[in-house]
Amino acid sequence: MMYIRPFVFPAGRQFYLVCTVLLVWLVCVVIAAMNILCQVHYNGHVRVAGSIGKRLPAEVENKVVPFQKVSGKDIIQNGNNVEIDLRNGEFKKEDNEMKSQQMDNVTILASIHPGKLLTYTHVPNKFFLCEMGMPVIIDPDKLSPEERQTYEEGFRRNAFNQYASDMISLHRSLPDGRDPECKQTEYLNDLPDVSVIIIFHNEAWSVLLRTVHSVLDRSPPHLLKEIILVDDFSDFDHLKQPLNEYVSMLAKVSLIRLMERSGLTRARIKGFDASSGEVAIFLDSHCEATEGWLEPLLDRIARNETTVVVPMIDPISDTDLKISFQPASTANAGGFDWDLLFDWRPIQESERKRRNYKDYLPFRTPAMPGGLFGISRQFFTYLGKYDAGFDIWGSENLELSFKTWMCGGTLETVPCSHVGHIYRNRNPYSKPDETETLKRNSIRLAEVWLDEFKAYYYERINHTLGDYGDVSDRKTLRQTLNCKSFRWYINNIYPELFIPSDSIASGEIRSKVEPVCADVVYDYIFERIIPTPCHGNAGNQYWLLSTENDIRRDSRCWYYVEWLSEIKLYNCHGQPSHSEWVYRDDDSIYHSESRRCLELSTDAKQIRLNECSGHERQKWVWNRIAADGPGRYEHHVSRV
Ligand SMILES: [Mn+2]
């Protein structure tokens, strides 16, 4: 019998090194090849039919333009029309006149000249890496001084990379980011039609129109009745006559101009009143609707008219415009804290279980973020739309969330519906009095909907209510609709909300040796616990000790980071989970895991953990009583 030596991989470090090098090389080659393919150049003739972004001078309109070497990145064939971003192109010498026009940040909507068909190597629109929601990487250092200025101006005016956005097609292709189950789901045949209402204030041209086109391109025509754009008193030039002209070319799209700054809430009411679809979907003006976004939303409303729906909101990067799809398994529910600001929270375990842990199915959520949602015309009208007394921005999302639940509806996130959204780090049109506006809105909200629980919000603003206007008609509305109590809402819809009266110590944590209190400092993304002089105004020196031995304020808990020897704030419901603190009879604060005690450093500049010694620097004065206010249950008596 012949002995066949089994094949054995040559072992040893060298072999793996060679493999790694080869692999890296291969990846590089593939990436390079894809980039080259994306740079396919086009030759042909186009007739300039209209302009996007800027009006072209009359002498340029209708001119037949030969071109070469236009990068294929932004070419879209749409019936007879071809849209080309000519900024990437270079033109023949004899077209100098055109060149100067076209290089001036103009994107041209061109149509194929009859008889002189555009000749180009056909690259499918959905060629990966060419578009498909991929990032646009720009090195500002390589831009000319003028371009660089445009680039920076774009950031300054919008708080996102307008320069990059302007390079991407208004019809850019996106991958299908849905979970596989979503593609097999059958939706009702008889779905209601929809009006999409988009409010904008000084939005960038390409971002606004990409929002519009994504809805037009990705909604079944028989379901999309109209898109209503509401201009909340913008002053950007491109949003004036150029937008009128552009919108007039689009069937189904209409434009309402408000003659004074009305704010998101009142502008939405105006847009809603002008619309007529059976369902209203509100979108921010910096979104991208994606494949199959509409049907899953309408399906829920068709089955129950009192269901209010929120899509999955996929972040679009504010710097490179890359879209990052969120799989359904990563979906979060919406919530808020006693500062009455929206935040994201994990989906309740009971809700996950109710859906048999099928992540792609719609799930109930206590609150909505507010930028993107759908509601039936009937139900929104029944609920009294929004409180028209809300100024500019904020609180309208929580108002509608509370109303939906307390007045007989259901608020759901629908993970099979995906809409991209540019999240910004700052509000580019923020005004100095923004916090006051938001506070005023929150007080109106608390007065009408929070019942006795409003005390917890008022404590956070030191009971300085000021003039918040008249809310009597909103209170009447609530009575007429016979809505349930806020306590019902908390106990049934939002049981994970921490109620300050469920605490065993509250108020400032004051050192016994120095007049300093535990406070928080924000360094980068972390919030670190430090001592600062006690000011007696609650705020960031206000802490609660929960019955679960969390030191917390709202949903933020103290967490000891061992390797840094620092105490930081983390989401109580997030990772890392639980740091247990005990406020002991000898006034020390004991950290169970490390078996050490909270100590003020000798220079009084740090709060850290040390071996428990009984030293005065380890003693803290903290009210051993619950925060004053209502509890979860009617019979609750505050432990004073
Ligand atoms: Mn937004």
From TrEMBL:
Q: Which cofactor does it need?
A: Mn(2+)
Q: Where is the Ricin B lectin domain?
A: 506-623
- Recorded GO CC terms: Golgi membrane
Q: Which CDD domains match?
A: pp-GalNAc-T
- Pfam families in the record: Glycos_transf_2, Ricin_B_lectin
Its pathway is:
Protein modification; protein glycosylation
Query: Recorded GO terms, molecular function?
Result: carbohydrate binding; glycosyltransferase activity
Q: Does the keyword DNA-binding apply?
A: no
Q: How does it sit in the membrane?
A: Single-pass type II membrane protein
Q: Check the record and name the SMART domains matching this protein.
A: RICIN (SM00458)
The protein's location, in the record's own words, is: Golgi apparatus membrane
* This enzyme's EC code(s): 2.4.1.-
The primary site where this protein sits is: Golgi
Sorted UniProt keywords: Disulfide bond, Glycoprotein, Glycosyltransferase, Golgi apparatus, Lectin, Manganese, Membrane, Signal-anchor, Transferase, Transmembrane, Transmembrane helix
Instruction: Please give the family membership noted in the entry.
Output: Belongs to the glycosyltransferase 2 family. GalNAc-T subfamily.
UniProt xrefs under PANTHER family? N-ACETYLGALACTOSAMINYLTRANSFERASE (PTHR11675), POLYPEPTIDE N-ACETYLGALACTOSAMINYLTRANSFERASE 9-RELATED (PTHR11675:SF131)
Q: What's this protein's name? A: Polypeptide N-acetylgalactosaminyltransferase
Q: Which organism is it from?
A: Sinanodonta woodiana (Chinese pond mussel)
- Read off the lineage from the record: Eukaryota, Metazoa, Spiralia, Lophotrochozoa, Mollusca
